[in-house]
């Protein structure tokens, strides 16, 4: 029974085998189970009847009897009995082995049955299916909970940070062209007033700083200088400016709450009081529009000058000035790398205080000293604007042409049939031809730079009664010695309708308003001469002020030169 080490009936099987094995004569040799014949379950279940071999019949024994005598037969019978006994023992052993196999099969079937009853595979399968379905249900519930949790978290995040996240949505920027408002005098006036009101705080702050730097109030400037230098010495300059900003915001808050506070850095420097608005007439309104347009023109001109100077400074238009800036930037870079920032800030703060309170005051009080030693002022005033560059370029070109003409260098390059005088006069031609030929003047007479193309106007000669002679349209020029009017109605090359007036013959020059009913200061210039009873009027001039300034300046210059040369005259 060693082949069933885990069988619970091992002891009972062993006792049964001992009884089977030793029911007959005990033999020392047993057949191995491996040598026993293979039997099926059906064969093992049937009753096996072990029949001994039949003994030899008498006939056979008689036939086998040895003629030698009865002793021989006796030995043969003994041999046969031994053989039969051995076969019987062998059959008994075989039966014992079969019984052992049957018992083993029975016990194994019992064990299998008990195991089946205990395990119950079908029940286990059902339970396994139930557990599997439960697992699937739990997985579905878990997925639903996850989805619900995710959707809740997503909704919470969107409600909290959706507006901020939406700001980071990248999209192509659309170029929206805003419609421009049509030109309106009312809109222009209102915009200029808005600009004035918006720039008022800046202008007042600049006015106070200028008064502080100019020492208009000695005590205030000295007090501010001592406080600033003390703060710069101890490294408190930046906190001081921040404190002043906080103080100003606090005062503005109190003013916005209805407090009446009038405070300025320097006493005596206050905001200009605007006159109360009154009902304006039509002419006054038109004059107001003209004043606004003039202020806008001047403001835009100043802004353009500043921007053009900055552009020309960085574009090496004036190499000498830009070179100073270039060297200064290299020095500042080296100092920023070698000098500690704390020491550099201390030095800059001290220099700014001395420059603002002392150096600028000295330069402002002594203009000659400023023109010689104030480097920023010299650089800024020396920077040219684009119109100045254009004028310098034209003057340089004329200077290059004149010497060549004087030395006859252009004489060889002139085409045939063109005289030297015609070639030099082409730079100042009118619509009718060379300037000096149209007005019958010498070749040296040329229009001034400010009126190279002339000023469009109409000449009103109130001494004439004929309509064609009373008003003539044309162009007005001014030279060093003459005031020239070229009539556009002249059909021939003659200069009968052109007008030439010597500047020294002018007795009076004034701005003139042709029609008094029209608003504004007018668009004409009145010039009186001894040869006319009534002053000549050049009206409908768009650039009346520019023309008047140029004519009056040249007239004053010419009269001063003539008086210095001939005092009697």
Could you walk me through the main structural features you see in this protein, from its secondary elements to its overall organization?
One of its GO terms (biological process) is apoptotic process. Keywords: Coiled coil, Membrane, Transmembrane, Transmembrane helix. This is GRAM domain containing 4. It comes from Hucho hucho (huchen). The protein is an alpha+beta fold and 569 residues long. Among the domains are: 168 residues, no CATH class; 131 residues, Pleckstrin-homology domain (PH domain)/Phosphotyrosine-binding domain (PTB) (PH-domain like). Helices cover 59% and strands 7% of the residues. It has 18 helices and 9 strands. The strands form 2 sheets. It has a 7-stranded antiparallel β-sheet. It has a two-stranded antiparallel sheet with strand order 1-2. It is elongated. The termini are far apart. The N terminus is likely disordered.
Structural category is alpha+beta
Overall spatial form: elongated
As a percent range, the share of strand residues is 5-15%
Please give the number of β-strands: 9
The percentage helix is: 55-70%
Q: In this structure, how is the largest beta sheet organized?
A: 7 strands, antiparallel
What is the ordering of alpha helices and beta strands? HHHHHHHHHHHHHHHEEHEHEEEEEEH
Task: Evaluate the radius of gyration.
Answer: 65 Å
Distance between the termini: 166 Å
Overall pLDDT level: 76
> Within the largest sheet, what's the order of strands?
6-5-4-3-9-8-7
DSSP summary: helix tally: 18
Poorly predicted runs of 5 or more residues: 1-6, 23-66, 399-427
Organism: Hucho hucho
Keywords: Coiled coil, Membrane, Transmembrane, Transmembrane helix
Protein name: GRAM domain containing 4
Domain GRAM: 433-513
């Amino acid at each position: 029974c060693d082949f069933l080490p885990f069988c619970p009936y091992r002891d009972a099987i062993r006792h049964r085998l001992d009884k089977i094995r030793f029911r007959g004569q005990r033999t020392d040799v047993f057949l191995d189970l491996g040598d026993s014949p293979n039997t099926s379950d059906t064969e093992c279940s049937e009753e096996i009847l072990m029949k001994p071999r039949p003994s030899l019949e008498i006939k056979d024994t008689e036939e086998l009897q040895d003629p030698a005598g009865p002793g021989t037969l006796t030995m043969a019978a003994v041999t046969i009995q031994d053989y039969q006994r051995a076969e019987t023992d062998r059959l008994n052993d075989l039966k014992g082995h079969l019984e052992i196999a049957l018992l083993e099969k029975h016990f194994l079937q019992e064990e299998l049955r008990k195991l089946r009853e205990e395990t119950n595979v079908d029940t286990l399968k059902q339970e396994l299916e139930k557990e599997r379905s439960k697992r699937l249900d739990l997985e579905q519930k878990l997925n639903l909970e996850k989805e619900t949790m995710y959707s809740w978290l997503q909704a919470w995040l969107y409600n909290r940070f959706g507006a901020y996240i939406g700001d980071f949505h990248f999209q192509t920027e659309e170029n929206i062209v805003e419609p421009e408002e049509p030109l309106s005098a009312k809109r222009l006036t209102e915009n200029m007033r808005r600009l004035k009101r918006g720039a008022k705080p800046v202008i007042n702050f600049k006015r106070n700083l200028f008064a502080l730097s100019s020492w208009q109030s000695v005590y205030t400037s000295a007090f501010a200088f001592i406080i600033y230098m003390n703060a710069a010495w101890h490294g408190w300059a930046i906190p001081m400016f921040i404190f002043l900003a906080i103080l100003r915001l606090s005062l503005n808050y109190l003013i916005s709450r209805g407090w009446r506070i009038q405070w300025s850095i320097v006493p005596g420097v206050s905001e200009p009081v605007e006159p109360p608005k009154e009902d304006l007439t039509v002419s006054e309104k038109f004059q107001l529009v003209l004043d606004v347009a003039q202020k806008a023109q001047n403001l835009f001109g100043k802004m353009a000058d500043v921007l053009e100077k900055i552009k020309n400074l960085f574009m090496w238009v004036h190499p000498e000035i830009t070179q100073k800036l270039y060297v200064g930037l290299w020095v500042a870079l080296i100092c920023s790398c070698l000098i500690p920032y704390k020491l550099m800030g201390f030095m800059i703060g001290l220099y700014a205080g001395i420059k603002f309170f002392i150096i600028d005051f000295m330069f402002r009080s002594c203009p000659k000293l400023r023109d010689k030693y104030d480097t920023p002022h010299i650089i800024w005033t020396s920077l040219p604007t684009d119109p100045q560059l254009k004028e310098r370029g034209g003057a340089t070109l004329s200077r290059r042409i004149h010497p060549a003409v004087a030395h006859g260098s252009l004489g060889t390059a002139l085409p045939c049939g063109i005289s030297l005088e015609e070639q030099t006069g082409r730079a100042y031609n009118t619509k009718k031809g060379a300037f000096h030929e149209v007005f019958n003047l010498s070749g040296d007479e040329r229009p001034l730079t400010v009126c190279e193309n002339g000023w469009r106007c109409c000449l009103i000669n109130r001494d004439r009664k004929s309509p064609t002679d009373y008003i003539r349209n044309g162009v007005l020029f001014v030279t060093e010695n003459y005031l020239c009017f070229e009539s556009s109605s002249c059909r021939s090359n003659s200069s009968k309708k052109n007008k030439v007036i010597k500047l020294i013959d002018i007795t009076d020059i004034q701005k003139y308003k042709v029609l008094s009913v029209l608003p504004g200061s007018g668009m004409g210039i009145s010039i009186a001469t001894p040869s006319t009873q009534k002053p000549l009027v050049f009206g409908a001039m768009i650039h009346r002020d520019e023309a008047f300034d140029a004519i009056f300046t040249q007239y004053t210059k010419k009269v001063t030169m003539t008086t210095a040369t001939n005092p009697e005259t």
